[in-house]
């Protein structure tokens, strides 16, 4: 029995130690070449935080074809343990039935609606629920702004903070303080206020001029 572990928590570590990408339990097994080209990764696909040339040359690349609970499964039905809940966002598991049913119902009703000059019922309901359940109004927080992911959330929050102080006549307040080794996403604003050295070095010329990590 073999379980391969997939974790995205520390991608730079895995770049240097490929053997850590796979953990086996039970009987030993040898590396087997995939028998079908359909099981190979698509060279046209550019994977983030992944050494793509190395990945595409692997005898057993991790290519998921389905998922359920805590596991992804490859074309040979071998389990891959999702050790970090995807990108730390699928704590409820992979393809839980209530989520699948809710998504199917929504797709049958309306696949997409913009938020520019148009509102829609699902967003309104979730905004109301978040404010009510979180008891945010009593803390002066009565607005919800939806984004696509953590990186866009941080970039949006940075712009909101700048716009807020500018509207109060304090446009000179532009300094953001972050923590050393802190991760705030892969957008330029998130990298600017974050403390991941490699990310900051790679895009140093494009980062916000005032901001950066500090030690506690």
UniProtKB/TrEMBL annotation:
InterPro entries: Aminotrans_3, PyrdxlP-dep_Trfase, PyrdxlP-dep_Trfase_major, PyrdxlP-dep_Trfase_small. One of its GO terms (molecular function) is transaminase activity. Keywords: Pyridoxal phosphate. GO terms for cellular component: cytosol. Belongs to the class-III pyridoxal-phosphate-dependent aminotransferase family. This is Uncharacterized protein. It comes from Pinguiococcus pyrenoidosus. The lineage of its organism: Eukaryota, Sar, Stramenopiles, Ochrophyta, Pinguiophyceae.
């Amino acid at each position: 029995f073999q379980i391969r572990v997939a974790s995205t928590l520390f991608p730079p570590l895995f770049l240097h130690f490929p053997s850590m990408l796979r953990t086996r339990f039970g009987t030993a097994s040898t590396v087997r070449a995939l028998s079908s080209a359909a099981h190979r990764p698509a060279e046209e696909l550019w994977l983030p935080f992944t050494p793509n040339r190395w990945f595409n040359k692997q005898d057993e690349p991790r290519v998921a074809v389905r998922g359920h609970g805590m596991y992804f499964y490859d074309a040979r039905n071998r389990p891959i343990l999702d050790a970090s809940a995807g990108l730390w966002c699928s704590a409820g598991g992979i393809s839980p039935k209530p989520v699948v049913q809710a998504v199917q119902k929504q797709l049958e009703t309306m696949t997409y609606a913009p938020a520019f000059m148009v509102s829609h019922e699902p967003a309104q309901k979730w905004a109301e629920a978040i404010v009510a359940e979180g008891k945010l109004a009593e803390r002066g927080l009565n607005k919800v702004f939806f984004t696509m992911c953590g990186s866009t959330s941080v970039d949006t929050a940075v712009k909101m903070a700048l716009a807020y102080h500018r509207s109060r006549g304090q446009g000179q307040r532009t300094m953001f303080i972050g923590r050393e080794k802190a991760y705030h996403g892969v957008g330029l604003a998130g990298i600017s206020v974050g403390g991941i050295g490699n990310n900051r070095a790679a895009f140093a010329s494009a980062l916000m001029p005032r901001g950066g990590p500090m030690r506690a």
